[in-house]
Amino acid sequence: MLFEYIDGGSYQEVTLQRNLRDLEQLKLRQRVMRDMSKLDLRVDALGQSFAMPLGLSPVGMAGMYARRGEVQAARAAAGAGLPFCLSSVGICSIEEVAQSAPAPWFQLYVLRDRGYMRELIKRAHAAGSPVLVLTVDLPVPGARYRDVRSGFRGLVGTSAWLAQAKDGLCHLRWLWDVWLRGRPHTLGSVASFLKGKQRVSDFLEWISANFDRSLNWKDLEWIRAEWDRPIVIKGLLEPADAKVAKSIGADGILVSNHGGRQLDSVRSSISALPRIVDAVGADFTVFLDGGVRSGLDILKALALGARACFVGRAWAYALGAGGQTAVARLLATFRAELEVAMILTGCSSARAAAPDLIDEI
Predict the structure, then answer these.
(1) Residue 141 pLDDT level (bands cut at 50, 70, 90)
(2) What is the count of structural domains for the chain?
């Protein structure tokens, strides 16, 4: 069930596949006979230095994929010199992650209870989170049919319990390491708000019922009043929205279609990227997530104007397969792939990646 939750998208998963396909179809230009003995993968953004142009996107319930999974992933990211963004629906709370690793970026979903949202922002601030990532493309959850077929969502009562018990008993290593040793299984950052509810499914039902369809640009005003550090708006695909975000005080944009998990049949993130960069200007901080699976993909996004890429599914797969060690290995693989791509395209600095790295033919 958890694999289907990570791996799936909404409706027919057209956008999920489009994210991958559109990146794959971009062609890099191979350039040779250049002195590539010195490579600089570092980039700077929002007052931070990244060891390479990559970060870990927020992934919900990562603590169900590996024992205290958000902590393990945050440590792996810190070891690689990269930012980790904690989901507001993570199993580990903002405080737990900040005590075990450098304070993570914090992703915020805006729910109907503004008072509780203000409290959550203050907690992230107190924990030392350097960046708030406001996710704006989830006023209502997308229809993810795989979750229904797997029994992860939709079943209730005894049917749900039996389906989940059967799934757990078929995965004994997970049952021992995560289910028995990885407790508590609550959504750590919001657990205090729902007294008396303990199961993850309780929280998911509550959150689904409390996403705020009235969310609009004016909400950024009260969020900015509560937060004096950088704010990144995640979930934009249209240049007009990007212009508004910049004009009313966002410090950066994360071009994203939620990994194809919200509205299906929309643009891929990579195809939306150049239009958004043109709209806000090359000096404005623009990140990208969606479909990034290799260091070559990172270089393609940099060439089209991204300051850095963020990955979600990639690190969730690694976390489930082998915890912190596997996430660290994944990040090392991304770095090795990016180095090869830079050397063979004649790009000695990640900060200097430009559109001429892409072959238009």
Answers:
(1) confident
(2) 1
**Cβ-based burial of 31 (10 A; exposed 0-12, middle 13-18, buried ≥19):** middle
Q: For residue 199, give both structure tokens.
A: 């199961």
Catalytic residue among 125, 171, 185, 258: 258
Q: How many Å apart are CA 11 and CA 264, to the nearest integer?
A: 6
pLDDT for the residue 192: 74
Q: Find all residues with CB under 8 Å of 125, minimum gap 6, and list them.
A: 226, 227, 228, 229
b/e per residue 300-333 (b: at least 16 CB within 10 A): bbbbbbbbbbbbbbbbbbbbbeebbebbbebbee
336, 91 contact by CB (below 8 A): no
Helical residues (DSSP H) of the chain, grouped into ranges: 2-7, 14-25, 69-79, 94-100, 114-127, 145-150, 157-169, 172-174, 200-210, 219-226, 239-247, 269-280, 295-303, 313-345
Q: For position 337, which CATH number holds?
A: 3.20.20.70
Nearest-angstrom CA–CA distance, 21 and 198:
40
Q: Evaluate whether 273 touches 288 at the Cβ level (below 8 Å).
A: yes
**308-311/285-289 β-pairing:** parallel
CB atoms under 10 Å from CB of 283, counted, come to 6
Please tell me the number of Cα atoms within 13 Å of 133 on its side-chain side.
Answer: 31
pLDDT of residue 116 exceeding 90, the answer is: no
Rounded CA gap, 135 and 219, in Å? Answer: 12
Whether the CB-CB separation of 10 and 260 falls below 8 Å is answered with yes
Structural domain that includes position 26: 2-209+218-359
Task: List, as one string, the DSSP characters of 93-140.
Answer: -HHHHHHHSSPPEEEE--BS-HHHHHHHHHHHHHHT-S-EEEE-S-SS
Percent of the chain with pLDDT over 70: 95
Tokens of 155: 């079943």
- The verdict on whether 258 is a catalytic residue reads yes
Give the H or E element holding residue 180. Answer: none
Residue with the two structure tokens 């300051």 = 307
